């Protein structure tokens, strides 16, 4: 069966940049390998979810991998999985960050992630965090940098609660509220957590470690910001859902967490050259080769950095080009969302260029891989269409409405339940 490689350039999409004479970084970058691929490709535009909605990498991938946004368990769960937390069925998890706040008509956040804080200091500070409030137990565990995971357990807890972390800089700590519900357990959980935050702050602001840090001219870690509450989800694993053995080849904890969430394998690479080799030499039916460097470059808000990164990526793609043009392989190149390398937004909600290279694709007239060139291509799709299009092009898609077993499938099953004589 044909193997599929999706080369996913994180945050690929961008906006026209003045500094690049009105081109986007992808349009401005010199990318001969991507352009050779483009000349053999069916191209077009993909809307990650809905027009104008900026998505994070985790939810954009969840949709790209064929799962429904309503089933997304939250980034907190992916975060916990990526750090090898064992998820309990009846617990609620959220991500926390040690922050520096000041009292000013509320708690003004001076630094969302306290700088230069050591693991030793964090482990001492965590000792003063409350462990039980109104019948809810709260357990904080370290994950990475200034971050951790807070686990809640109790009879009436809910993950339908808002964040205390405003996410954007220079903001205030937000009161936690029941989110999109007035269920009593959500109200109760929010109340417990607000008490937890207040009590933690009362202990932390006078903690000797923080007093000492202030004395030394360092930022105190006097607040624990919370976000992304979620519960352990019950999702069908990728292979069972799509009939392809799936693997993510990546270099980030987030990708590891997503692979665990969806029951896919994960292979870590050190640089993209190795990533390309691993993708080409592995036997998985579906390989998602992910690089987060375009997104990171865009976050520097210097469009030239993104151009440079895209040119570097292109330099690693020769083996992939050779394989795509010679072997029985379906190659898809796209991104997960738009990260504009200027302006105020973190991510933005435009569509992305996409191209498919392989035996069954209807090659179109687009010659260069870019936002506006691909908008003249033949494909109009949404992120949720990707897997079905791959199944179709690799001749795995099931004739709609056939019923090979107890559940509706999108793919021709590898095994069937035989009638016993
Ligand atoms: Zn980003």
From TrEMBL:
<dbReference type="Pfam" id="PF10143">
    <property type="entry name" value="PhosphMutase"/>
</dbReference>
<keyword id="KW-0413">Isomerase</keyword>
<dbReference type="InterPro" id="IPR017850">
    <property type="entry name" value="Alkaline_phosphatase_core_sf"/>
</dbReference>
<keyword id="KW-0324">Glycolysis</keyword>
<dbReference type="InterPro" id="IPR004456">
    <property type="entry name" value="Pglycerate_mutase_ApgM"/>
</dbReference>
<comment type="pathway">
    <text>Carbohydrate degradation.</text>
</comment>
<dbReference type="GO" id="GO:0004619">
    <property type="term" value="F:phosphoglycerate mutase activity"/>
</dbReference>
<dbReference type="InterPro" id="IPR042253">
    <property type="entry name" value="Pglycerate_mutase_ApgM_sf"/>
</dbReference>
<dbReference type="GO" id="GO:0046872">
    <property type="term" value="F:metal ion binding"/>
</dbReference>
<feature type="domain" description="Metalloenzyme">
    <location>
        <begin position="3"/>
        <end position="379"/>
    </location>
</feature>
<dbReference type="Pfam" id="PF01676">
    <property type="entry name" value="Metalloenzyme"/>
</dbReference>
<protein>
    <submittedName>
        <fullName>2,3-bisphosphoglycerate-independent phosphoglycerate mutase ApgM</fullName>
        <ecNumber>5.4.2.12</ecNumber>
    </submittedName>
</protein>
<dbReference type="GO" id="GO:0006096">
    <property type="term" value="P:glycolytic process"/>
</dbReference>
<comment type="function">
    <text>Catalyzes the interconversion of 2-phosphoglycerate and 3-phosphoglycerate.</text>
</comment>
<comment type="similarity">
    <text>Belongs to the BPG-independent phosphoglycerate mutase family. A-PGAM subfamily.</text>
</comment>
<dbReference type="InterPro" id="IPR006124">
    <property type="entry name" value="Metalloenzyme"/>
</dbReference>
């Amino acid at each position: 069966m044909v193997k599929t490689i999706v080369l996913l350039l994180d945050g690929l999409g961008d906006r026209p940049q003045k500094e690049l004479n009105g081109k986007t970084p992808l349009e401005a970058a010199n990318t001969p390998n991507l352009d050779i691929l483009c000349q053999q490709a069916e191209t077009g535009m993909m809307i990650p979810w809905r027009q104008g909605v900026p998505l994070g990498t985790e939810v954009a991938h969840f949709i790209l991998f064929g799962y429904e946004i309503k089933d997304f368990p939250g980034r907190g769960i992916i975060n916990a999985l990526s750090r090898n937390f064992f998820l309990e069925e009846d617990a609620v998890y959220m991500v926390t960050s040690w922050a520096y706040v000041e009292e000013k008509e509320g708690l003004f956040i001076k630094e969302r992630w306290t700088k230069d804080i050591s693991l030793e200091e964090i482990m001492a500070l965590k000792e003063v965090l409350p462990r039980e409030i109104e019948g809810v137990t709260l357990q904080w565990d370290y994950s990475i940098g200034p971050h951790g995971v807070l686990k809640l357990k109790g009879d009436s807890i809910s993950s339908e609660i808002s964040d205390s972390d405003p996410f954007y800089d220079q903001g205030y700590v937000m009161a936690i509220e029941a989110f999109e519900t007035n269920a009593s357990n959500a109200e109760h959980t929010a109340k417990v957590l607000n008490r937890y935050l207040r009590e933690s702050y009362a202990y932390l602001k006078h903690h000797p470690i923080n007093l000492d840090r202030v004395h030394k001219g360092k930022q105190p870690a006097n607040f624990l910001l919370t976000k992304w509450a979620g519960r352990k989800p019950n999702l069908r694993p990728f292979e069972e859902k799509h009939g392809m053995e799936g693997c993510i080849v990546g270099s980030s904890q987030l990708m590891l967490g997503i692979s665990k969430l969806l029951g896919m394998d994960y292979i870590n690479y050190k640089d993209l050259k190795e990533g390309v080799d691993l993708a080409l030499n592995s036997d998985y039916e579906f390989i998602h080769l992910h690089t987060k460097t375009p997104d990171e470059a865009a976050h520097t808000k210097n469009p030239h950095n993104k151009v440079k990164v895209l040119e570097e990526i292109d330099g690693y793609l020769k083996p992939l080009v050779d394989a795509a043009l010679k072997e029985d392989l379906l190659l898809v190149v796209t991104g997960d969302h738009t990260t504009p390398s200027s302006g105020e937004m973190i991510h933005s909600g435009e569509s992305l260029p996409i191209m498919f290279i392989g035996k069954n694709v209807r090659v179109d007239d687009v010659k260069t891989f870019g936002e506006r060139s691909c908008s003249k291509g033949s494909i109009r799709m949404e992120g949720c269409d990707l897997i079905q299009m791959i199944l179709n092009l690799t001749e795995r898609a099931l004739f709609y409405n056939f019923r090979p077993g107890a559940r509706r499938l999108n793919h021709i099953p590898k095994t069937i339940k035989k009638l016993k004589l």
